[in-house]
Fold these 4 entries.
Entry 1:
Amino acid sequence: MITVEKNNESKHIVVYRKIHQSLIEKLENQGYKVTQFEPINSNNIQEFYEAIKTANGIIGSVFKIDENVLSKAPFLECVSAISVGYDNYNLAVLNDRKIPLMHTPNVLNDSMADIMMGLMISVARKLVYCDKRTRNGEWNGALDKSWFGLEVHHKKVGIIGMGRIGEVLAKRCRMGFDMEVAYYSRSRHLKVEELYDAKHQDLDTILSTSDFICVILPGSPETKHFFSFDQFSKMKNSAIFINAGRGMTVDEIALINALETGKIAGAGLDVFEKEPLNKDSKLLTLDNIVLLPHIGTSTIETQHLMSECAVNNLISALNGNLEKNCVNASIIKK
């Protein structure tokens, strides 16, 4: 233990997002020198570039860690993302340099499942739409059918991308709302099938028979515009489409067309092709969609858990332990 502390004294950690002071102190108590940016902006970007010249590890999120940034960090030994996704990191360069990329799966599963469940209910029951009309003074007595929504309970949900978050969502749908659960995935998940009576089905079957389509796909060249005109054309007219995975998986022009023409009943999005959402996006003009600013993990509790996980990941990686939460462990160990 003493040896590790002595080695750590010369290591420099750059944190490029605000995290709780107790986590900064945890790094300092391990013997690391810590430089923090809260967050990176046009005023401090040059200071950040200067800081990473001597950095052995970096922790943060949102800011793009591309080839240009990595080229300025010759002593880098570990990158720790405060996120489960790693779209903002140049994995090819990290692999070439044998630099571990750590991430924070599992700690956000419940929060993500909650936001998807919330979108399902909000869209189906027209909560945002009815709130807007109520505030506008349109509630003047008995409600006509334009205020009516659709039920959520006892409906069929099709989960596209059955991973950790999908499993937790399936639990909420089946155990909390008595829903029929189906999922599309490259491999079967027997635990989910056994616990929640979920059915592994082909994509076309799920699209044509589900009342809710919930997308939790990762971002990759293979999943870009996974949902476009053809997929929306196969859905029920009463279907509700939910995406909280990656914005790039949905062709927004095709989605807008489906919503405008009544091909589907509604949608709920927490992610978009371009973020922040353009202020002139046609999505903003539609009443049958609920839009959120990528807040799937934006709770005080989950953000702290993710930051804590990222700090622990960094400490483990710098001590040579890549057994948990390392994206490219198989490459590093070669």
Entry 2:
Amino acid sequence: MATRDGLGSVLIGVIGGTGLYHLDNLTLMRRETVNPETPWGSPSSPIAICSLKSGTKVAFIARHGRHHNISPSVVPSRANIAALKSLGVRAILAFSSVGSLREEIVPGHFAIPTQIIDRTKGIRPASFFEGTGVVAHASFGEPFSIKLVRWLEVEVEKALKAHGNNVVLHKDKCIICMEGPQFSTRAESMMYRGWGGDLINMSVLPEAKLAREAEVSYALIATATDYDSWRPHSEVVTATQVIQTLRANADTAKFVAASILEDLHVAALQGDILSEERGSMKYSIMPRDANESEEDTKKLAFILPEYFGPNELAN
């Protein structure tokens, strides 16, 4: 895929969450960072183009900024996803620190969720189509890319075993995305458990929704830092407790990323793990007005050139 800045094909993007602000165990290319400007502004941080041993390039962005100066509610998720796609990214591996809503998901454990319950409050722009004269209803019954998830379950488990710290990987879990920035009340935390939630964070939405609209495969590796607030005989979660677990989780996450990214790139080249998203928006976009504004068309062409090119106006 040709990219807007001449970097060539960067198929895999990594979004680092709290505690994971860089992949310093990979090699930065001579041209260390890029900072694509998108119709939705600039990304959270300059995007580091990292090189694997083979020379394969991977794009890395810090969700909350390099110095964690962006609160969850104001992360420029549209700019982040659009910037990654503009580099050629077809699959995003996102990392996020989470609270555990289950006794067996011990702080320090990893999880790969397959479902989301949205508890954000409409503050965050959740669609590339917002503010335009074009309407789209993306399919979101499976909010994560299942083929990518199943591939990751095998490879992440192998990497964790190789790391040797007895970190357990939990699969097929449901994550609650809350607004924040405050943590849950005890009543809320217990309610989420009753709903079937296993994990809780503040970041998976709107990322997953925007990746779907951009036809980019997306999966989340969740790293548990605490038990949220549901345990009746435990103190409620505090930022201090979270930070105590972050460093160990970040080191493990870097090891996992370095272990799987090469094979993930190869799998992406082969194409099957990306097949669910390709073309998925074709029938999600409502019939368009012949008088659609040039500004809207140009804006949406940045993220979906296949449908908003000069000759693509639907009748």
Entry 3:
Amino acid sequence: MTTEDAASNISNKRGSSALQMGPRKKASTSDPLVSHGRHFGRTVFALCNYPSLLTNGILRLEQMEDTPLEHFSSEERREHRVFEQLLDSYPGLLERLKNGSEENILHIGELIGKGASGARGDDTKTLKSAVLDWISPKGEAIQPPLHRNSKIDRGFNHELTGSLLCPAGLDWNDSQTKENLRSGELSVCGDQWPIFVYAHQTYDPDDPWCGLLRSRLLVSAYKHVFTSPSSVEKEPKATRSGNARLHGMNSATIASLAYIATQVRFALSSSSVFSRTDTATDSETFYHSLLDLLEDPDESREVDELLMWWNRQVFPTSAAAKRPITANSALSKIRQKRLALKQISNPNVVSS
């Protein structure tokens, strides 16, 4: 079956954006795509309707024969980038989609979605308890106590979780602000980032990039999910087993940072069920708002520095190759000499 044939089968089924969580469905069979979906959801795109992603993507491939991708909406372009990343990450998937019936395409999407939602559910469950260990004052117990299996007292209801969830730019120590957050009179949208995403819970309105997504709480959660729970309190090692190693992951991704921040935010909240219809946590808006920033080409320099920082925290062996060469070292001298020779033979060569 050609792309055109596959597209004609599903053209009438195309619905809303695939980059939103779809209805919950159970895929009845086990398949390597389920395992792949677990990793893809954590590292490339978490809150996704995979059957729609595949059906929309096949249809768009046909449309792109006549219409360049640049002519599609920004939402469609992002969706297609996710679709292409999925194809690139799973060899043979495109052929399966081209040669499959509409039912097969939907089933493939359900298998990937089963993996992604399963991983998200597992992470939500384990982080609910683990996060309390990371936010406890050193050598002290949380007062008043927070229950590991119940979240009703979390969120703005508790002094500690409330101080971490307070939107950057607001003062949790201001009694009126605290009361308004607790009562709901002051509603918090998903694009109002909580202070815990900043290093040392410190936000500088004049330099909002400073410390963004570099908090120890986020690092602990990232290690918990990707390199194993036991690695949180230890130095990361290349030989350590975990989700990252199982899937050949040796560097942080933009989406993985947004995913972990979303999970931690939910763990600190009083909401009991992770749901796209939960307007209280507004998790989808939060996740998308982080991706909007991190995928913005204008922010590439800051994002590159952020990813390098994360690689040093979690994947030190891969980050070592990216560290600047030490000045006056033998390696730097060799590189300088090689550059000088290149510039003699080609004056257009510039230093990187």
Entry 4:
Amino acid sequence: MGSDSKRHIPDHVIFTILPRLPAKSLVRFKCVSKAWHSFINALNSDNRKLIFSTVRSIHSVDIGANINNMKARNLNFPLGKLLHQLIGCCNGVLCIVVQIDRPLGKADLVIWNPWTGRYKTVPISGVDLTEKMYGFAYKNTYGFCFHQSTNDYKIVRLVKREGITEFRIYSLNSDSWKSGILPWYIFPMSYERKYSATFIDRSLYWRIDHITDPKDRWTALFGGSSVILCFSLVDENFRVILPPDDVAKGAEFDLFDFGGCLGLIHCHARRRAHVDIWTRNEHNWTKSMCIPRLQELHNSLYLAPVFFYNGTGEVLLHEKDTYPYRGKEVFYLYSLEKKTFRKFNIEGMEQFTFHIDMPYTPSLTSLIVGEKLGF
């Protein structure tokens, strides 16, 4: 009995050691006991990060860290030598399109957990990425989402064909695609903008430049205005949502995750004005805040929200171009109460111009789907 007690390691010691172990070890240790499983799952529940992507690299920044000590860390994407574009991020997993053979339009969709290093590739065709790409090409746009009730990751791909717009839906659980045709002909893929979908609460949302009747492509629907295309994971149907009435026809706007709600950034940068932030509940839009314009900004720049610190009432912002819609390395903290800006830099961000940014929380999510995955 004395011998057994000497071999026993107290729980508080174990739970001090576990957070220091590599992710691959933690994945194995989840099966030791229910207590270990729960503790390991909760390790990174509040480890908030941002992902910044270029066409050659993917970086993360710990936004929970001290603002004066923020650093960009290269995640060392295993296929990073190839031209690639980040599509989306959910449940700790990233989805990236990787160009395999540009002349033949061959590419892989890669579902990758940066923390465990595991990834799954899904071959596709008809993709054209370029070194100077600011958004997606004119023929494709994508969305990446996680269906919690079925524990399944899905990729939605919109493809323009002769006179129609086709949708293709990939399921990681079944490792298969299904397809159909949208009742509209859409123009979502302007060259200079990001058109991967925003995933919020069981739905994907794309900003669409304009929609026409597939029977008469010269007949614009919804007054020819930009609209929002929504795909629901609940019934796997598509529908169109109109932007707020105050968002003028042809105005600059983008979509983002506003604390679990659909957020819309209405940019007035071309008028050297401000940025309005709108949020949407099930049926209505509400103007949530207005971020004033800094007089020193160039006409083509505006400040886009990246993250909201609920405890301090501050918003993390970064400079963006309205054209060609790229993020700059300059960041600000804006106080909603004091209406003041504080400028700062993130170490390492000055080395590149990023195209995509999105929130990310590391997880030990498994990607086992019946075949050996890469590391």
